[in-house]
Amino acid sequence: xxxxxxxxxxxxxxxxxxxxxxxxxxxxxxxxxxxxxxxxxxxxxxxxxxxxxxxxxxxxxxxxxxxxxxxxxxxxxxxxxxxxxxxxxxxxxxxxxxxxxxxxxxxxxxxxxxxxxxxxxxxxxxxxxxxxxxxxxxxxxxxxxxxxxxxxxxxxxxxxxxxxxxxxxxxxxxxxxxxxxxxxxxxxxxxxxxxxxxxxxxxxxxxxxxxxxxxxxxxxxxxxxxxxxxxxxxxxxxxxxxxxxxxxxxxxxxxxxxxxxxxxxxxxxxxxxxxxxxxxxxxxxxxxxxxxxxxxxxxxxxxxxxxxxxxxxxxxxxxxxxxxxxxxxxxxxxxxxxxxxxxxxxxxxxxxxxxxxxxxxxxxxxxxxxxxxxxxxxxxxxxxxxxxxxxxxxxxxxxxxxxxxxxxxxxxxxxxxxxxxxxxxxxxxxxxxxxxx
Length: 437
Fold this sequence. Notes:
globular, about 425 residues, 15 helices, mainly alpha
């Protein structure tokens, strides 16, 4: 199949899927901002900053699922692909249950450690508990989506997330807007929506996809396969964990300026995520194409697919950046019009837009390396850019210059741009072409 057509068939449903995944966060933030207020938005921001540690594992499992399934499909080893999915389901469920128990037990401590005020802790305790309780569902939603995408069934993954989001929107309006359950209602709505999404994914996987034959006995642990999954998961999770952990430090810096600054930052980031996640859809398409082409013995086609996808992604985010820069006051104002929150959200959105061109290229190059099974290189790149550069730079600019909270936003742009340059350099070196998984 021609590269352009392959990209289109995979990328369009993946972009739609990631767009709807972003809606989980933005819909929750909208209803909480409208019906609960600044304190509620601060609760969401502080909790989500820690919850990203769970998303790290989810992303790692998704990366492993896409890389392994795409390679097995390219090799036409369909039975092994189905067996791998069964192992992914068992591993994700076990890890998720463990994290859910820990998060629910330490929910109050999480909010206090992140700098939440007494009011934030009081109003947010159940939001945090319910958010952590959904850990198994979060892991499965990402993992099963990665497996479906790796097999080329991007449309199935898309449908599951769309339906889950529709349920989340309806329940957000009911729980938060009508029944006045407060910020906890938003967490319950998201958890229920995602649970339905996982049910739909399982429906497609068990008996609906002939190239992924899965049976109940595949759920029993097989050490050799679990080792491969864990190895790739640690690399993928390590990348996201390094990045998300750095964001925990960033929001901790911002929390020293007050709840309104955290609320404005949270709104700005939610709007950013709404377009960044669809861009990850294009990046995921590149990962699938690289994995399948390597499995089929066509490394040069794998490279061309990734580079072409990166150019498409750069073009998309460049257009979005212009729109966001101009419309920032209007977009942030939809969530909260209080002066300090609005000003912070607008500054966050406009500054981060400056790095959109680099974001688009860098994320595709990183995912292409992951799709080839080389998760170590992106991990080291992330560590250097986010821990060696971003965190010290954010602290220095926010503390020792007149930029204050804006210094954090500029540090994000600089580190993400550097990541894009390094990811392109290592991808073009081509060591990933001989990666065995």
